[in-house]
């Protein structure tokens, strides 16, 4: 896969995830892979709902999930 095909694949995955939140793990995995990263994580905070969403794109330590949820629920910045 060429660089331009790879970045097109990443951008398409992001647009798809924007309309279907269940697709974020795949999009983040593609971003991480494109950047040759060991992992990927997206944390979203909703001011209206006072809610946090954590999406992982590649295997990560599941014990960190609660830590991220707690930390960003208290202080998203």
- Residue share in helix: 40-55%
Q: Which class of secondary structure composition applies to the elements?
A: alpha+beta
Number of strands: 2
Q: What's the Cα radius of gyration?
A: 14 Å
C-alpha geometry: globular
Oligomer: single chain
Report on this model:
This protein has 77 residues and is α+β, with helices and mostly antiparallel strands. 51% of the residues lie in helices and 16% in strands. The chain has helices at residues 3-19, 24-34, 64-74, and strands at residues 41-46, 51-56. The chain has a two-stranded antiparallel ribbon with strand order 1-2. Helix 1 (3-19) runs antiparallel to helix 2 (24-34). The model has no long low-confidence stretch (mean pLDDT 77).
Which SSEs are present, and which pair or pack?
Layout: H1 3-19, H2 24-34, E1 41-46, E2 51-56, H3 64-74
Helix pairs in contact: 1-2
In short:
With 77 residues, the protein is an alpha+beta fold.
Descriptive terms for the model:
51% helix; 3 helices; 77 residues; alpha+beta; 2 strands
């Amino acid at each position: 896969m060429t660089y331009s095909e790879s970045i097109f694949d990443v951008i398409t995955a992001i647009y798809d995830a924007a309309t279907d939140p269940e697709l974020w793990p795949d999009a983040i995995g593609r971003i991480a892979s494109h950047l040759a990263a060991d992992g990927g994580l997206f944390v979203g905070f909703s001011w209206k709902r006072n809610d946090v969403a954590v999406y992982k794109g590649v295997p990560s330590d599941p014990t960190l999930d609660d830590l991220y949820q707690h930390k960003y629920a208290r202080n998203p910045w």
